[in-house]
Amino acid sequence: MMLESERQSVVDACRFMQDKGLVVGTAGNVSIRVDDLVVISPSAVPYEELTAADVGVHRLDGTPVEARLKPSSELPLHLSVYHATDVGAITHNHAPASTAMGLVCDEVPCSHYYSAMFGGPIRVAPYAEFGTGDLARNVTDALADRKGALMSNHGAITTGPNLAKALDLLPYLEYICEVQLRAMWTGRPVKILSAEQMADAADGMSTYTPTSLDADHS
């Protein structure tokens, strides 16, 4: 089986998202780019039943290379991001706080310095039907110079040079959205960090390497 290690990593990542409450059912997907190939989770397979052999391998044009099951409906989204960037992995989830934030704003402001992990304010891609080219284009645009974005009335996405890095960002994105939501619930003005403060935070975090997930998702 080709790219067996990468396919198993996708399985492990899907189960991690499920264990952390970042997906509902099978409503999420994970992919890894390996040169001109993309390893991506299949559609509608319960994560507890998912195996490496179920994870398909496709070319960057979407042509299946070794895929016995239908790929995630969001394959066009993953391919669009890979064509537009040099990222090595993508995760997509429907976690509660990040999904909720996508219902009430067009951008999550820098209310927490963790936003520096994503390159600044987190954009919300305009709504488009799942699995469509319109959604792929909207999300790719929202990810410009960012490592994560929200999808209006849908969910969230993170990227990274490898799967460990992309996956590690998911809980931070959910945390940022949860904090912003709770602050908004008070009805009081939410303090926003200045561009200078965010630049200082980015500098301070430039050597930070999250380790909580790397050990399990290398």
UniProtKB/TrEMBL annotation:
The cross-references to InterPro entries, in alphabetical order and at most eight, read: Aldolase_class_II_sugar_metab, Aldolase_II/adducin_N, Aldolase_II/adducin_N_sf
Q: For the Class II aldolase/adducin N-terminal domain, which residue ranges apply?
A: 8-181
Q: Recite the UniProt keywords alphabetically.
A: Lyase, Metal-binding
Q: Give the species.
A: Acidipropionibacterium acidipropionici (strain ATCC 4875 / DSM 20272 / JCM 6432 / NBRC 12425 / NCIMB 8070 / 4) (Propionibacterium acidipropionici)
Tell me its EC number(s), please.
4.1.2.17
Q: Name one Pfam family in it.
A: Aldolase_II
Quote the protein name from its UniProt record: L-ribulose-5-phosphate 4-epimerase
Q: Does the keyword Protein biosynthesis apply?
A: no
Q: Name one GO molecular function term.
A: L-fuculose-phosphate aldolase activity
Q: Lineage from the top down? A: Bacteria, Bacillati, Actinomycetota, Actinomycetes, Propionibacteriales
Q: Which PANTHER family match?
A: 3-OXO-TETRONATE 4-PHOSPHATE DECARBOXYLASE-RELATED, FUCULOSE PHOSPHATE ALDOLASE
Please give an example of a GO cellular component term from this record: cytosol
